[in-house]
Write a structure and sequence with these properties.
Blueprint (H helix, E strand, L loop, with lengths): L3 H5 L3 E7 L6 H10 L2 H6 L1 E7 L13 H21 L3 E4 L5 H16 L4 E4 L5 H5 L3 H11 L3 E4 L17 E2 L23 E5 L8 H13 L5 E5 L7 H10 L6 E5 L3 H10 L2 E4 L8 H8 L4 E4 L4 H4 L6 E4 L4 H12 L2 H18 L2 H17 L3
Parallel strand pairs: 1-2, 1-3, 3-4, 4-5, 5-6, 7-8, 7-10, 8-9, 10-11, 11-12
Helix pairs in contact: 4-5, 8-13
């Protein structure tokens, strides 16, 4: 039993983050960080949980209700800082749109109250905002000045290098390992391999490019089945089904809607190839889920993905919005079961070495302690 003095000796860490819903990569990682037992053992923690959207479609949209919420959460941040006196404030900065100006407002409040800030970037978009605007560039520089910055990969550093001059910390995301996660490793001899897509049904996730690639594979005579899994977004499940029918792919391509929890993991166990042809991505947690189930992954050269997938070893990297190249790489895996097995096994090994939740939490703890120990 720790006495009161020992508890109060731990540094105070305040999280100002968005938690689910809606569920997406950034909100999921915020949940993992704020619920980490390892961090709670080493820090006294409190949370200001920001909630501005109920669905993925609402993200980034302006409304007067969001203005009211912005002011409400500003008051909450002030009260928390005055009462809790955090040694460090952890902010998951949104780098563009209305949400950036909202977060800027919060950052200036935190700085006025003389608290140290660490930003954890789980999205991108800074460079496109500042390249042609000196005013925006100055604003970003003011926001990021005298702060610490955690980024997911060195491949993303060119998004902020025009406005952040210090050395960032790099921590790849991680996920919770599931029991029985290696079961698909023995599926090398299957005669009708299953291709799996799992994400929101968004054009920017490349799902329409995938449909075009599947049509090419069908026309080239490949045997396969495919399951497109995910909730409706800017494409609905019904719209995607109609497209599949119009291309004559409905005998081998199924659109299932979303799968969660054990149902989702069952889908991974039954698949043979995972495909993620996104063209607007930062990291792609779903790739880690596929790797833990020993699936070879075909994904695009986008965001941090080339750091995760070793091209030709754990899967294939393809150009964005290139259905022909996507079909070619999927075709290589469809016709070579041993290649699927070898790549899947290597991807599983890479997942265990680099992308488990234990590895992520250890890296976060070490980084936060390093930041606190730096001379201000």
């Amino acid at each position: 039993m720790k006495n009161k003095t020992e508890v109060n000796d731990r540094p105070a860490l305040l999280f100002v983050v968005q938690l689910p819903p809606p569920l997406h990569g950034a909100s999921l990682m915020n949940s993992i960080v704020t619920e980490s037992e390892l961090l709670r053992k080493n820090f006294r923690t409190e949370i200001v949980s920001l909630h501005f959207a109920d669905s993925v479609q609402d993200l980034g949209k302006f409304s007067f209700g969001k203005i009211r919420k912005t002011l409400f959460y500003a008051v909450e941040i002030i009260k928390k800082i005055i009462r809790f006196k955090p040694d460090l404030v952890y902010v998951n900065l949104t780098p563009k749109g209305f949400a950036f100006y909202r977060d800027t407002f919060y950052v200036f409040i935190i700085k006025l109250l003389r608290r140290r800030i660490v930003f954890h970037l789980q999205s991108k978009g800074i460079r496109e905002n500042v390249e042609n605007s000196l005013t925006k560039r100055k604003l970003y520089q003011m926001v990021l000045a005298n702060t610490s910055l955690i980024c997911l990969s060195p491949m993303l550093s060119d998004d902020f290098d025009m406005v952040y001059r210090d050395e960032p910390y790099y921590i790849p995301n991680g996920i919770v390992r599931q029991a029985g996660d290696n079961t698909s490793i023995m599926r090398a001899d299957v005669q009708n391999p299953e291709i799996m897509y799992l994400s929101h049904l968004l054009k920017s996730k490349g799902v329409l490019v995938l449909v075009d690639a599947l049509e090419i594979l069908r026309d080239e005579g490949f045997n396969f089945s495919a399951r497109l899994i995910g909730p409706s977004a800017d494409i609905t499940v019904e719209e995607l089904k109609r497209l599949i029918v119009s291309k004559g792919l409905d005998d081998r391509v199924e659109v299932t809607g979303p799968r969660y929890g054990d149902d989702k993991f069952t889908e991974f166990r039954q698949a043979d190839i995972f495909v993620f042809p996104t063209y607007n991505e930062v990291f792609g947690l779903v790739i880690l889920e596929a790797m833990q189930y020993s699936l070879p992954v075909v994904a695009t050269i986008e965001g941090a993905i080339p750091d995760i997938i070793i091209d030709g070893k754990t899967g294939f990297l393809v150009e964005k919005q290139n259905a022909g190249m996507l079909a070619d790489r999927l075709g290589r895996l469809l016709k070579d079961g041993e290649l699927r097995r070898i790549m899947g096994k290597e991807g599983h090994r890479r997942f265990l070495e680099n992308y488990t939740i234990d590895k992520f939490e250890s890296n976060i703890l070490f980084t936060l302690q390093t930041i606190l120990n730096k001379t201000v």
